Amino acid sequence: MSEAVIDYLGPMPTQGIGLHDLHPFVPCFALEIADVRVFRVHIELSARGSDFAIQRLEAAGLAPDQAHDSLNNALLLYAVRRLEPLAMEWLSTETRPVNSGDLWSLTSEDVPQLLALVQDKTCNYQTRIRRDLYCTAASDKDETASSSIGGRRAAPTSKPLCRSCALPNTDFICSHLMHARVAGMRAYAGVISRSVAGALCDQGRDEVREVDKCRAGGHGCWQRVIEVEPPAITPVSPLELAEAFDVLDAVWRLAFDKKKPLLSLSTVATPAALSLGCTTRAEFETRLSDLADLIDRIRVGDTLLRPRSDEEMNKDKDQLRASLNRMVDCLHHHLPAAQHPAVDAAIKTLRTIRGARNAQQHGITEGGGLTAKLRELGIHDAPPNWAGAWDVVRARTVEALTALRHELMAYVNQP
Prior knowledge:
Blueprint: E1 2-11, E2 27-33, E3 36-45, H1 47-59, H2 64-92, E4 101-106, H3 111-119, E5 126-129, E6 132-135, E7 147-149, E8 152-157, H4 159-164, E9 177-187, E10 190-201, E11 223-228, H5 240-255, H6 269-273, H7 281-296, H8 310-316, H9 323-334, H10 340-362, H11 369-376, H12 386-413
Parallel strand pairs: 3-4
Antiparallel strand pairs: 1-2, 1-11, 2-3, 5-6, 6-8, 7-8, 9-10
Helix pairs in contact: 1-2, 1-3, 2-3, 5-12, 7-10, 7-12, 9-10, 10-11, 10-12
């Protein structure tokens, strides 16, 4: 499963950047993928927009300090809501942002959206049944709990009660907070309040005792973790993997040189072995080795590589010995930059397969060894399910080869 982490870096200093032109609170966030910071953004609201928003909030009955705090929280919530879909896109497409930093500038036109965030509180513990709203985080001591929903104690609530509860908005609550317990206070006319009785932290942090600060802009340990499940596996027929290599070879010749095949084969034994199944670890290792050997037989001529000076060629000669490195170099040289992310994602899959072969043949344990490489391919049950693991490897390889073929055909068909 791929993962990205959003961290809150705090408000940027506004001194010296036109204090009178901006709202004095400028939050800044960072995004990490695979423990590498890939993106940083800060959010600015114009002074005119700030004045307009504060006036509207004060007119709604908030004191000046409350109005400023509510607007600041709306900016934090806006940032997280906007950043999460970007992180999901980069994860799911295995790409990275073009620029490592950005500025999101908001004006008076964005104030209605910010004001809506002030009034709107999302909570995953809310459940609506017909006309009625329930809180499914009811603690064992919640005397207002009157029913059970999905095996959880449920207590009557309402949107105003939920807004007054200290449990932060789901859209920017810390991803490590879990098992929140909320209790209601009953009066003669009904429930008058709901408050957090406790929660657990998946990181074991003591800060969870102040649940209201388990949000962006609260505790310094706050994080949002974004996960993307690997795409579902589409089963392939036993012959489809060998056919995928054949079709890619044909398209490669069409794109570059009809007389020079992509694959250098001295025997038909290796392609034939790809159609065989497996039931044991030994058979899986044999199939994986055969597949990696076929990937290693990819041949890309020097004339297709990016032109280099003699000095550059000597510097890069070790790198350019590897078949996949030569393929990437060729495709990056000939195909438009817009096609490079898809090429890189496909090549990454093929590299992972080769890495899995090397890990099992040479007993490599660095980075998690064979198990980690299989997980990168979406395999989580080998051992013992070696037959299923081989099916996934074949399917992932077909996906990668098909993606490369599509990019080559787009190159061939371009005006």
